[in-house]
């Protein structure tokens, strides 16, 4: 798993690989798949991997259980990450943009006045 991947992306790729291997005749038990998933996680996940391996019997554990636990932990990790301070150019307006808005507004007013004059002349 790459640092920028999330659990769902990693699990999707993992499932594809396991399914392709199954079609080639290599079958992994749920226990082996759980071990491989826990082994492929980045080092930032090591405390969680340790907690899962210590608290649960991996031989009897269903594959969905550690995946659910990892997803829940991922939510906590996302909450702890500081927000990236990037450019917020979408929120900045230049003077040219403001001038364009003013011009468009003036144009709309002129068009409305012309329409009103036409309606009055027709009546």
Describe the structure using short key phrases.
single chain; elongated; 123 residues; 5 helices; 2 domains; 67% helix; mainly alpha
3D structure, described in words:
The protein has 2 domains: 7-80, no CATH class; 93-122. The mean pLDDT is 83. The protein is built from 5 helices and no strands. By secondary structure, the protein is an all-alpha fold. Helix content is 67%, strand content 0%. It has helices spanning 7-23, 30-40, 46-55, 64-80, 95-122.
Query: Mind describing the biggest β-sheet?
Result: none
Poorly predicted residue ranges? none
**SS strand fraction:** under 5%
Number of strands: 0
Shape: elongated
Brief summary of the model shown:
The protein is mainly α. It has helices at 7-23, 30-40, 46-55, 64-80, 95-122.
Secondary structure topology:
Layout: H1 7-23, H2 30-40, H3 46-55, H4 64-80, H5 95-122
């Amino acid at each position: 798993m790459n640092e920028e991947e999330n659990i769902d992306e990693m699990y999707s790729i993992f499932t594809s690989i396991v399914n392709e291997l199954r079609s080639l005749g290599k079958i992994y038990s749920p226990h082996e798949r759980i071990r491989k998933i826990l082994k492929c996680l980045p080092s930032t996940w090591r405390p969680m991997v340790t907690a899962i391996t210590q608290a649960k019997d991996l031989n009897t554990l269903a594959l969905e259980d550690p995946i659910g636990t990892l997803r829940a932990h991922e939510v906590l990790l996302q909450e702890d990450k500081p927000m990236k301070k990037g450019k917020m150019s979408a929120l900045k307006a230049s003077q040219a943009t403001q001038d364009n808005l003013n011009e468009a507004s003036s144009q709309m007013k002129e068009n409305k006045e012309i329409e009103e004059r036409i309606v009055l002349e027709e009546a």
